[in-house]
Design goal:
7-stranded mixed β-sheet, 13 helices, 16% strand
Amino acid sequence: MDINQLVRKNVQKLTPYQSARRIGGKGDVWLNANEYPVAPNYQLTEQTLNRYPEAQPEHVINGYAQYAGVRPDQVIVSRGADEAIELLMRAFCEPDTDTILYCPPTYGMYQVSAETLGIKTKTVPTKSDWQLDLEGIKQNIDSVKLIYVCSPNNPTGNLINQDDIKTLLNIAEDRALVVIDEAYIEFSPNSTVVSWLKDFPHLVILRTLSKAFALAGLRCGFTLANKPVIDALQKVIAPYPLATPVADIATQALSKDGINTMRLHVINLNNQKEKLAKHLSALPIVEKVYPSESNYLCVKFQSNKDVFHKLWNEGIILRDQSKSIGQDGFVRISVGTQAECEAVITALKAII
């Protein structure tokens, strides 16, 4: 029996998301997944592993609502923001009928989730400055139910102009939800649009503990939206999306001490990012280091140097973004420890 004959046709043709761990690599310096470079220290306090966890743990929901400045009924917690991306499609899009729209270069899971579920996709590439092409979006909004915008954007690191986001919300009114992916917002906290929820019922915001909270291994993300959106997501989310240990550590991370620790992470990493950008910019092999409001740098290297593979062979694992951006020589570098950043600079000098 050929099992492939039973696989859904769209899945047969699907290329899975190429996560950092899926791509692999061997080395000592891992700067390819936008993780915080130092592991936090938490101790489990809940021992009720014989019982199913709460569907939406109250302490986690209340803690994140207080942190984000929203009501608890405007929050749903999921297995990372990745699950939230898909939950929105499951709740709001009819397969083979409805469409999502996103603006490359941007996070690849929007496309993969839609293709997995049999939902159509439209792309409106960003302009040369990596800002939204609002006219292009306006011309392509027919049949679109969800518009995904990442700000700060991955892999480019830039913020999306807030006036443009507001214009996009007006374009999409009564037609589609606008989903602002704020996975990296802690590195530019004044740029959040969370206060806009009161004015835009079709605004949705995605958040995560994976980046500034240094808990990528926890797989804990949040959707912030008005109650009708949250109610729809509650209908399609798994019965027990958050394991008891995950809820336990998330509650600790969202305590006053936990949030203060996160903010120290941001200060330290932003300082390290500034140093790394300065050292990179001084190298003749570097054509441009792009401004970043995230925990990584998007760097354009001389195309003929093949920096990504040369550092890969040296055990320094970065993220090649040439395909997603559409030009050779683009590499995304997560900001690591001082020693890791120095290793990158030393290896690049050796190429020169």
